[in-house]
Design brief:
heterodimer, A: 429 residues, Rossmann fold, 2 domains, globular, B: 301 residues, mainly alpha, ABC transporter involved in vitamin B12 uptake, BtuC, two-stranded antiparallel sheet, 12 helices, signal (chain A), Leu-bd (chain A), BCAA_transport (chain A), Leu_Ile_Val-bd (chain A), amino-acid transport (chain A)
Chain lengths: 429, 301
């Protein structure tokens, strides 16, 4: 009797499984992004981009005829609210997949939850390198790089363009990203240039309104290079106060996230400072400009929001390109039929896709291989804000921690000769 | 630490203290008179900054002189204090003066949250930066270090003017004396015919305008961002509590103490930078629970 019941249950289960693989009316995606708080400088443009890209996909006939419907969750509401909203979207709204999230803290919290809920989760913007180095997930993937290649490319750019500097100071925000990014940067720098001297380490409070004291101190110390991985209002304030007081004349700033501040800073960021954008993200991307899809999007985004796309827009485009690509791949693998959710997860392995930047490939450990672009600021009369010259484009393969290794340990094994062994593509201007 | 570094830390400290004082003095003035701890004070600071940054930005973009930034700061903060602070006191706080303190704090906190969202609606989430006022004043070289005249000279001078001005206003004008009378004894003041409602309103508007003025002055030096009000309110609470609630001169000295403490921390122990204001507060309150300049109250029956 009991086995009969189990067989019936199995049949019923198989039946619903078959139903789930029927083409749905819409493909439901949950997207977490910052719509409040300081990080909304990233979250709002990313949401605008998601709306535009999804509208375009749907106008082109959706995913194999199925239109995308997106629900947004505000990461700014805090961890607990985010977790319960995430659960609600997965369990009540029954979304097909989630794009989460911007904050590394939130990714740390949501990755195990996605695993529990058995929902495909694309980490579309968070940077912590630890997630796939310390855990194994089936349902969690990252459609972009992580902090290690971002910082390593920055160190390489610095060492290739200014090999003779001797002193460096750091001014980072006092939270996980500010501390972790300095850890990675410092480890890589010490491995490749052991004689570089760190003369000051400042970690002003997150959201600090004033860096006057730090700047006085830096003017007295006169380091050759000042690193700041800050972003948003913090970075704007620091750069402006540094420029107002002439610190930018005596030290070279290295700003791995400043691509997202260029337009706001206007002429306040003088020429000759190093800028990155967390990947190959730049509205004048030397490999992509001239591609109509790229040019049209840059223009349409500027028309809609009044600003050119910044890196979170690129990250969002990559995540949505991955959605498109993975469904195409899973449908093909399923003989042209709509795949069930597990088949979609299977199709993520080794997936390649292209958003607004260069192509990204998902590795065995679910980490995306994304190229890194850095440049030096130059004055632009056309745009009224600094643009990048002497751009270098680093191949993701060269600078991403190998599968199965831990970033900090791997960086320690790099020697001074690593600098010359990595050969980025260079663009004169 | 040599003499040069000592001098530098000192200059940085007073510039910072000047801004903190302007916000804290409004908070302590309001508490002294209304006996309400006004959490929404942080919103007035933020809105003063937003209003100044956006209007000055528009003025400069339209090709007018950046010197107009200075009168604009005063106009913007008076408008924020009057148009937003006024109704908040008249329509809301007036109803809760007799209620428990916890409830009063919750109500002002609710106002704070509402005003935070109003700022997002009006000004969006992208940072504003408008430093024309700072740029026109130029820079000053002291001991080989470049300072902006705005931070090194203007801010401390304005803070001193506000301190002296408030003192003269409270001791030597009729409105000021009425405020002092109400602070001293509300019932007695009412009994001899002082219009307490009006005094409350004037005090709240002046206090809110001072917070907005602090924000207006800060807007030239910093990015105006969502959440800036919350940070400032926490710091000004620390100043006000350390000084003793309701003590204006005390707020000035405490702001200086905290400003200097913070800048010396950046030179000597950068890790302690954030902690210093609260360490000072803790040390003071352990020894003098009523604050540096506070007086123990005898409870009236």
């Amino acid at each position: 009797m009991r086995s009969l019941g189990m067989a019936a249950a199995a049949i019923a289960f198989a039946a619903t499984g078959a139903f789930a693989a029927d083409k749905p009316d819409e493909l439901k995606i949950g997207i977490t992004t910052f719509l409040s708080g300081p990080a909304s400088v990233f979250g709002e443009p990313a949401k605008a981009a998601a709306d535009m890209i999804i509208e375009q996909i749907n106008a082109d006939g959706g995913i194999d005829g199925v239109p995308i419907a997106a629900s947004y969750v505000d990461e700014g509401a805090g961890g607990e609210a985010l977790v319960s909203e995430y659960r609600r979207l997965v369990e009540d709204v029954d979304v097909d997949l989630m794009l989460a999230s911007i904050s590394s803290g939130n990714c740390n919290q949501l990755a195990p939850l996605a695993e529990d809920l058995k929902v495909l989760n694309l980490m579309w913007d968070c940077g912590t390198q630890r997630i796939f180095e310390e855990n194994d997930y089936r349902y969690v993937f990252r459609t972009q790089a992580n902090a290690t290649p971002e910082m390593l490319a920055t160190v390489l750019y610095l060492l290739k363009t200014k090999p003779d500097f001797s002193t460096i100071a750091v001014v980072n925000q006092d939270y996980a990203w500010g501390r972790d990014s300095w850890d990675i940067f410092q480890t890589a720098l010490k491995a490749m240039k052991p004689d570089a001297k760190v003369v000051a380490e400042f970690f002003p409070k997150f959201g600090a309104p004033d860096f006057s004291t730090e700047i006085s101190r830096l003017q007295a110390l006169r380091p050759d290079v000042i690193l700041s991985t800050s972003w948003g209002g913090d970075l704007d304030t620091f750069v402006r106060q540094a420029a107002q007081r002439g610190l930018t004349n005596t030290s070279t700033l290295v700003l791995p996230l400043a691509e997202s501040s260029l337009q706001r800073l206007g002429s306040a960021l003088p020429p000759g400072h190093i800028v990155g954008g967390r990947g190959d993200h730049y509205f004048l991307h030397p490999e992509r400009v001239g591609d109509p899809a790229f040019d049209d999007f840059m223009k349409a985004f500027h028309d809609k929001t009044g600003a050119y796309p910044i890196y979170p827009v690129f990250h969002m485009s990559q995540a949505l390109a991955a959605v498109k690509a993975v469904y195409a791949k899973a449908i093909e693998a399923n003989g042209g039929e709509w795949p069930d959710r597990e088949q979609v997860v299977d199709a993520m392995d080794g997936l390649s896709f292209q958003g607004l930047g260069n192509e990204v490939t998902i590795r065995d450990d679910h980490q995306g291989l994304e190229d890194q672009l850095l440049g030096t600021t130059a004055k632009s009369d056309e745009y009224g804000f600094a643009i990048l010259k002497d751009i270098m484009l680093f191949d993701a393969e060269d600078i991403t921690t190998p599968v199965g290794e831990e970033s900090i340990e791997w960086l320690k094994t790099l020697g001074p000769d690593f600098v010359a062994s990595v050969e980025p593509k260079t663009y004169a201007d | 630490m040599n003499l040069q570094l000592f001098a530098l830390a000192f200059f940085d400290g007073i510039a910072y203290a000047a801004l903190v004082f302007l916000v804290a003095v409004g908070l302590t003035l309001i508490f002294g008179v209304l006996r309400v701890l006004n959490v929404a004070h942080g919103s007035f600071y933020a809105m003063g900054a937003y209003a100044t940054a956006s209007t000055v930005g528009a003025i400069v973009a339209a090709g007018y002189s950046p010197w107009l930034a200075f009168p604009m700061m005063i106009i913007a903060s008076a408008l924020i204090g009057g148009l937003i602070g006024g109704p908040v006191e008249k329509l809301l706080l007036r109803r809760i003066y007799d209620m428990e303190e916890v409830l009063q704090i919750l109500v002002t906190f609710a106002v704070f949250m509402i005003l935070e969202d109003v700022q997002r609606l009006v000004w969006g989430v992208q940072p504003y930066f408008e430093s024309s006022a700072l740029m026109v004043l130029g820079t000053v070289d002291v001991l080989g270090i470049t300072y902006t005249a705005y931070q090194l000279i203007l801010l401390p001078v304005v803070a001193i003017l506000v301190l002296v001005g408030l003192r003269i206003f409270l001791r030597h004008t009729l409105s000021g004396k009425l405020i002092l009378a109400v602070t001293e004894d509300r019932e007695a003041a009412t009994a001899i015919g002082v219009n307490v409602d009006r005094v409350y309103l004037v005090t709240f508007v002046v206090g809110a305008s001072l917070a907005a003025f602090g924000g207006a002055l800060a807007s030239a030096t910093t990015s105006v961002i969502p959440g800036m009000g919350a940070d400032m309110i926490v710091l000004s609470f620390a100043v006000v509590a350390t000084a003793g609630l309701g003590r204006i001169e005390g707020a000035a000295i405490t702001a200086l103490l905290i400003g200097l403490g913070r800048s010396f921390a950046v030179y000597l122990a950068p890790e302690l930078d954030v902690l210093v204001p609260y360490l000072i507060m803790l040390a003071v309150l352990l020894v003098r629970p009523e604050g540096l300049f506070g007086m123990a109250h005898t409870r009236k029956i």
